[in-house]
C-alpha cells in the first residue's frame, strides 16, 4: 500500500452514486472535497462515522467542503445506507476498488486472526486545486467528524 500524502496530486476519478449518477472529483472545483473511505455500509463503525459527517454537514457547507464517501459496496447497498441514516452527502461505489488502490487505501487487513484485502479507513481533504491538503488516518470512528471539523476551523 502506497497511501497518498499531503502535497500529492489527488487521482481524478468518476464513480457512480446510489442513483447510478456518475460523480467526478473534478466537478466540485473550486470547493474542497473530503474523500472518506470506509470498509462496508451498514456496519457499526461505518454507521457511526457516516452519521457524524451527516450531523456536521451545515458547518462543512459553510466552510465550502463537499463530502464524498467511497466503499466497495454496490449502489443498491448505498441506497439502503443513505435512506436508513438519512445521509445528506454522496456515497460512491468502488466495487473494483480501483479508486481505493489509487489513493493507497486498499490492502491487507487482519481481523480476528484472518487476513484479507480491504479498505483501510482513511480520509483525504482535497483542496480547490486537486492537491491532498491533509490525510486523516488516526481517529476513532465516533470522533472522525470532530477531528475533521477541528482541522478545518483551526487551519
Order of helices and strands: EEEHHEHEHEEEEH
Q: Given the helix and strand composition, which structural class is it?
A: alpha+beta
Uncertain parts: none
> What coarse outline follows from CA principal-axis ratios?
globular
Number of strands: 9
Considering the protein shown, what is the CATH homologous superfamily?
Glutaredoxin
CATH 2nd-level architecture:
3-Layer(aba) Sandwich
Highest-level CATH class: Alpha Beta
Largest sheet: 7 strands, mixed
The number of helical elements comes to: 5
The helical percent reads 25-40%
Arithmetic mean pLDDT: 95
What's the number of domains? 1
Task: Report the span from N to C terminus.
Answer: 28 Å
Rg is 14 Å
Which fold name is given in CATH as the topology? Glutaredoxin
Beta-strand percent range: 25-35%
Q: In order across it, which strands form the biggest sheet?
A: 2-1-5-4-3-8-9
Amino acid at each position: 500500500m502506497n497511501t497518498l500524502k499531503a502535497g500529492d496530486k489527488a487521482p481524478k476519478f468518476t464513480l457512480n452514486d446510489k442513483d447510478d449518477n456518475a460523480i467526478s472529483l473534478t466537478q466540485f472545483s473550486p470547493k474542497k472535497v473530503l474523500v472518506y473511505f470506509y470498509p462496508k455500509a451498514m456496519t457499526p463503525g461505518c454507521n457511526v462515522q457516516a452519521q457524524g459527517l451527516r450531523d456536521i454537514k451545515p458547518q462543512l457547507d459553510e466552510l465550502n467542503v463537499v463530502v464524498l464517501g467511497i466503499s466497495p459496496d454496490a449502489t443498491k447497498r448505498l441506497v439502503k445506507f443513505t435512506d436508513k441514516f438519512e445521509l445528506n452527502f454522496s456515497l460512491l461505489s468502488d466495487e473494483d476498488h480501483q479508486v481505493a488502490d489509487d489513493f493507497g487505501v486498499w490492502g491487507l487487513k487482519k481481523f480476528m486472526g484472518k487476513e484479507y484485502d480491504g479498505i483501510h479507513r482513511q480520509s483525504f481533504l482535497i483542496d480547490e486545486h486537486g492537491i491532498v491538503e491533509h490525510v486523516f488516518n488516526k481517529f476513532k470512528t465516533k470522533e472522525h467528524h470532530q477531528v475533521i471539523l477541528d482541522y478545518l476551523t483551526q487551519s
